[in-house]
HDOD domain-containing protein
Amino acid sequence: MSTARPTLSRLELRCPPLPQTLTEAVGLLNQPDQLEVRAVTRLVERDPVVVARLLQIVNSAYYGLRRTVSSVERAVVLLGPVSVAGIIIGMQMLRLRAALPSQTLACFHRLSQHSLATAFLARHLLGLMHPRASNQLSIGFTAGLLHDFGKIILVYNFPDEAVAFYDQQRLTQTVQARDEQELERLLFGFDHTEAGEYVAHKLNFPDVLIDTIRFHHAPDQTPPSREAYWLTPAIAVADRIARTMGYAFTHPLHPDEALNHPAWALLLDQYQAVEWTPESLLTHCMQQQEYLGQHVQSLSLPNPPTRARP
């Protein structure tokens, strides 16, 4: 194993160049008083691809609307500006692959699929726990998209080492998340939650997203005074369910393994969801496989063409 790199306090981690639309969407989330329908509609209308995907999502069977929605503004009203801002962020994050070296693209594709699945499941879980908290559902979706932001940072800064490491982890079935973080610290000097928190703070992400990036593997360590306290258990559970449903970045999980985490009890206790057990919640989410697949497909970008070898 390589010698550990300098600690975060002495290392300038770089972030891939962010699309302007992504930066503006994050800025709107950071200023909730400006997060209105018209502002988000303008952001969507700049990009025909985002327009098409947004209309595809709002008209999907998951939302069960009786009439087809063809207006961007109407779609923003129905889904909510916070949720649509999250969709914009998700699609723009996928475009970061253009800034990544070619050897990282397969790794980035797996990571983006996992992030999209986690976002869908986080929003679905929060809807079951607290269906009337629409803003919380929407922030949960965005937090799910960005929970592994630190892995993007590691892949961008250390492409050869990170790809080799994560590809090896994918083949090592016995390694747990906490072990993976320890190995990241040995190789890079910090793990992906620390790297993600560091860069997200530099980019002025909202505190709730920074905290989710930092604590999604240890939701019980989220300070109760923080907004993310109500989100990190759902993100941790969604991450594990995604890995059970075919959207693992490194380690697929058997359902019994997915249930072996304190985040389940923490999630149910926080929301006093006495009608659910971890087992029934997992079963319910796994029954959403078709909707999950449609969601991931609707937000995914086409795979980049493979370059012919000379």
In short: The CA atoms of residues 5 and 188 lie 5 Å apart. Confidence is low (pLDDT under 50) at residues 304-310. Residues 105-129 form the longest helix (25 residues).
